[in-house]
Design brief:
The structure holds two protein chains of two kinds. Helices cover 49% and strands 7% of the residues of chain A. By secondary structure, chain A is an alpha/beta fold. Chain A has a domain of 332 residues: TIM Barrel. In chain A, α3 runs parallel beside α5. By secondary structure, chain B is α/β, with parallel strands linked by helices. In chain B, α6 crosses α7 and α8 packs across α12. The model of chain B has no long low-confidence stretch (mean pLDDT 90). Classes of the chains: A alpha/beta, B alpha/beta. The complex binds guanosine-5'-triphosphate and magnesium ion. Magnesium ion (MG) binds next to α8 of chain B.
Chain lengths: 534, 370
Amino acid sequence: MSIRPSVNSGQGSANKPDEKPFVGPEDLGAFDHAEALGEPGSFPFTRGPHRTMYRDRLWTMRQFAGFGSADDTNKRFKFLLEKGQTGLSTAFDLPTLMGRDSDDPLALGEVGRCGVAIACLADMRRLFDGIDLAKVSTSMTINAPAAIVLAFYIAVAKEQGVPLDQLRGTLQNDILKEFHAQNEYIFPPVPSFGLVVDTIEYCTRHMPQWNTVSISGYHIREAGSTAAEELAFTLRDGIAYADGAVNRGLAVDEFAPRLSFFFDMHNDFFEEIAKLRAARRIWAHVMRDRFRAKNERSWLLRTHCQTAGVTLTEQQPINNVVRVALQALAGVLGGTQSLHTNSMDETLALPTEEAAKVALRTQQLIAHESNVTQTVDPLAGSYFIEKLTNEIEAKAWAIIDQVDAMGGVLPAIDRGYFRRAIAESAHAQQRAIDAGQQKVIGVTDFVDDDAPSVPTLIITQETEDEQVRRLEELKATRDQAKHAAALKRIHDDAKAGVNMMPALIEGAEADATVGEMAEALKSVFGAYDGGPEW
Amino acid sequence: MHSTKHAPRVLLAKIGLDGHDRGVKVLARSFRDAGIEVIYTGLWQTCEATMHAALQEDVDVVGVSLLSAAHMTVMPEMLRFRKELGVEHIPVVLGGIVPEADYPKLEEMGVAAVFNPGSAIDDIVAKMRQLAAARPKLAIDEIKSGYEKGDPHYLARLLSAIQLEMKLDGWSPPKGNASVIGVTGSPGVGKSSFIARLGHQLRDRGKKVAVVAVDPSSPVTGGALLGDRLRMMTGSPDAGFFMRSLSSGPVQGGLGPHCREIVDALNGFGFDYILVETVGAGQSDVAVRDLTDHIMLLLMPDSGDSVQFSKAGIMEIANCFVVNKSDLVGVEATEAQLRSAVGGDRPIWRVSTIRDEGIEAVTDWAESLR
Ligand SMILES: Nc1nc2c(ncn2[C@@H]2O[C@H](COP(=O)(O)OP(=O)(O)OP(=O)(O)O)[C@@H](O)[C@H]2O)c(=O)[nH]1
Ligand SMILES: [Mg+2]
């Protein structure tokens, strides 16, 4: 199979002017259907992780959004539970995501803005007040301080008397992509990675129903990578986590079924479908051949997808509805397990209710009107789709091999490999747009004269003030001796290199805040400055 | 082809906790390609530290990238510090997601331009050039007298005047008696991070410190990405720590075109230490020898530099050595190799900049120079 050198535009799967206008059997070469595809639900799972896919069970329509304070979010959760929803998604505000307390100087103006502020156990308690943690599944989008936030959650469960093995949910907990792309890191890569492995180890032993890491390509792609880079970096990160857990002494089949993935659905329709199919095929081989996993569930790549926020435009915002629909359809034809569709105004503001509804309706239209759900992997066997799948797979393997040759993900981060690649791809895309090779409807072409209309953000300072006041009160009234002892234990355990979860849970129970616990870890781990590349 | 002499200097800053840096990075690269010198100060900066950096770098424009919708809080702060520091001649522009309704308010408060995610790069570049060209020029006499009064703003302007090869009419800065220390080593060994720590320790001991850091410029466009400052940003700016980023221009040897005069100007201003970071081209960074007797070579574990130990060049002219990143594996081996290569006459220190370990000994040495 010959691979065309990738045009680094990230939006260039196919049908470039210099390519053949159509693809035929000769382009596929020796293509062994059984080996390359199998059947849906069987190795290598190119056609889908389950045999009947959406016929028996639609993907989960998971719309994720933040709502101010813990009390507001709690009300929203209860409303959703009453309506029969059992999965709760938690978005945190920026200070929490960065492991900082609501009263930290850098938190000014950010508290409760894009999600809920959870600075201490009391905040988490209010978030789940009156909600039985044994009965819900909670997804928490948090990374650098994930272990600390999980400790808050565990402490609430303990207060409620819920045995840990009954807890169900997902922690994003993917620190590697923070170093590559999203920049929400605190400590240097090695100890940060260690914390992720701590949570994998702890959950595997005590919370077997918990999805430990959602290995994310979304942010890598949004930061500007190509589709092949997104695919390769994400899967290579997955390999790194699996290596970390194995080196900790866990058996691969104990933890691998609890790893899940998260990909971006960008504009290039067929390329995105091919990306998901290739992802499953590569991961199945990685798990079976590289890690010698025996359990079929370890081989399955299960993924969440979100439409590409970065493709939305401020100009002619209604066009975004169409972009999202196409991207969402690619996710479905690619066989995703859950999907978030962006609201047309999402990059500009927290979505308005109307926009959020249209986004959800888009998924429902695909699910219930288009009939695309009735045949599993309907595009299989298309010369073009199979060729694309092969090509993106080959590109991804080549990148995975490169990272292997550098000694793995952590050494490659040290060299700035990922950040450089992503920045260069982003720059290449911008050049393609500037040169008119890549059109952006409503921005570079088909531009309307009237100025863009952007909804004004409504930000209340009240949430922040109230949150800061409560935190200050807590800091003044908690059991100071117990608090100091817990922080000391965090420091000592970090120094000793043992699993941090027990100490963090103790910290949570002693009313230590997210910022204080992060500081205690920083005093041993150091802080990270972003690495050599910028 | 543009000449470095006229390359506009633009400082790009991200303020607050928001980590979305795709836009600012794409812009930095596009600016470089368009012949602009870009100083990027990295994530999580405060308004105060950013304006302070703008003063020292004497940039033509400050660009703030904000995707967290905090512009109505952040921009007034920026402009307040601009006024406080007396650098209102430096235009401040904003890029990010800004509701249209806020444009007039921003303009009124003094923001020179606002760009949104759909703005064409060419338009942004053109605006930068226009703002740079419109910046009021100072007469050299005013610069000299401000400098002689010890005002860091005029020091910064003098350094620009030197770079622009303005006529100083026979004037030269007074002779100083700073210890000038050249810091060299391969790209990424940690020169900037190390200088930042050493500088701060010297500050803690009451010394005044200046840093000159050179990064390569694009031979084609004359633009440059100057990233050293990124490692030296601290939350609270300090007048006794002055840093200037330079581009190497077409000059070989690891330093910029006017490095000597710039060091002299800093020296005459009364700094106790002037730390000079070379480009980091490795063996060819030998120009620093003409600038100072104290040349410090940084190495790191497993850097592959070890094989070059026996080669001539930088190893010979260095008179002390720092093995940085001692937190990484293989540091013992690197140090042992180094010791056997250089013998026992020249000092060798082992440090971890990231953990702030081992730097005191280097600071002691620096103090002993005086
Ligand atoms: N592990 C570790 N990393 C370090 C240490 N010191 C610096 N670094 C990292 O090395 C990278 C490069 O640091 P810089 O200070 O920019 O290196 P430099 O030599 O100035 O680089 P150039 O100016 O680009 O040649 C950064 O990511 C630093 O965080 C250290 O002691 N240990
Ligand atoms: Mg440097």
